[in-house]
Specification:
The chain is of the alpha/beta class. The protein has 10 helices and 8 strands. The protein has an 8-stranded parallel beta barrel with strand order 1-2-3-4-5-6-7-8, surrounded by 6 helices. The chain binds 3-methyl-2-oxobutanoic acid.
Length: about 260
């Protein structure tokens, strides 16, 4: 996908949309060579790359650095970058500065979490010509307010609130909405009620697309994975084996070979 209207076309045609995260140039290059539709420079970089327990330490500078690296290698794939924690909660001028930084570093769209209290910001970003992706359900920037990383919308009141927030994001002009960690039936209901596509993560099979963290997909995430993660390769085993083969070759003088040596 190269443009935002392709998201709408995909939903209209019933074609599923695939999105993965990337945070650096080499992985963005691999995604660019794949059939995956779009790249999300997620603030999950704070956890996956920098080892934090939450996404809260991600700063605008950090997101700009990762966005620039990804955009250099994305080779035409659509690049969405996360607005980090609080960057869109300090009023419209501060939010627009943050959006400007991400777009000047190569983002074609920005993603932000929730809607209540920053409707004006979303309207201003959309009105300025920058596509906005919403994010509802488990919104990791609110991890403390949500009492941890847990499934959202399990009771009728919470489910109704999420459905109405999704409508509000559509009304404000978002081009797509990430639905994270919610019952599949709720995600299905929201998806069929909206004209814009939903992109699910831990939200079942009925959303218009899916997003996964690349390191989860590649099986190089350490520790226990949430239920919704599928490892498409045991990357940890493959890469550890490569390291151990290298180690053995060095120690047993099989590396470097003559053809890997300058005369
Ligand atoms: O930061 C991120 O990687 C995300 C996805 C998990 C949707 O927001």
């Amino acid at each position: 996908m190269h443009a935002v209207n392709e998201f709408a076309r995909a939903k209209a045609a019933g074609r599923k949309i695939s999105v993965v995260t990337a945070y650096d140039a080499w992985s963005a290059r691999l995604v660019a060579r794949s059939n995956v539709d779009a790249i999300l420079v997620g603030d999950s970089a704070a956890m996956v790359i920098h080892g934090h327990d939450t996404t809260l330490p991600a700063t605008l500078g950090l997101m700009a650095m990762h966005t620039r690296a990804v955009a250099h290698a994305a080779d035409g794939k659509f690049v969405i970058a996360d607005l980090p924690f609080l960057s869109y909660r300090k009023g419209v001028p501060a939010a627009m500065t943050a959006v400007g930084v991400l777009v000047r570093n190569g983002a074609q769209a920005v993603k932000l979490e929730g809607v209540d209290g920053h409707e004006d910001v979303i309207g201003q970003i959309v009105g300025s010509g920058v596509p906005v992706m919403g994010h509802l359900g488990l919104t990791p920037q609110s991890v403390n307010g949500l009492s941890g990383f847990r499934v959202q919308g399990r009771n009728d009141v919470d489910a109704a609130k999420l459905a109405s927030q999704a409508h509000e994001l559509e009304r404000l002009g978002c081009f797509a909405i990430v639905l994270e960690c919610m019952p599949a039936a709720l995600a299905a209901r929201i998806t069929s009620a909206l004209t814009i596509p939903t992109i699910g993560i831990g939200a079942g099979p009925s959303t218009d697309g899916q997003v996964l963290v690349l390191q989860d997909l590649w099986g190089v995430d350490s520790g226990p994975s949430p239920r919704f993660v599928r490892h498409y390769v045991d990357g940890e085993a493959v890469l550890t084996n490569a390291l151990n083969e290298y180690d053995a070759d060095v120690k047993e003088t099989r590396f470097p070979a003559p053809e890997e040596t300058y005369s």
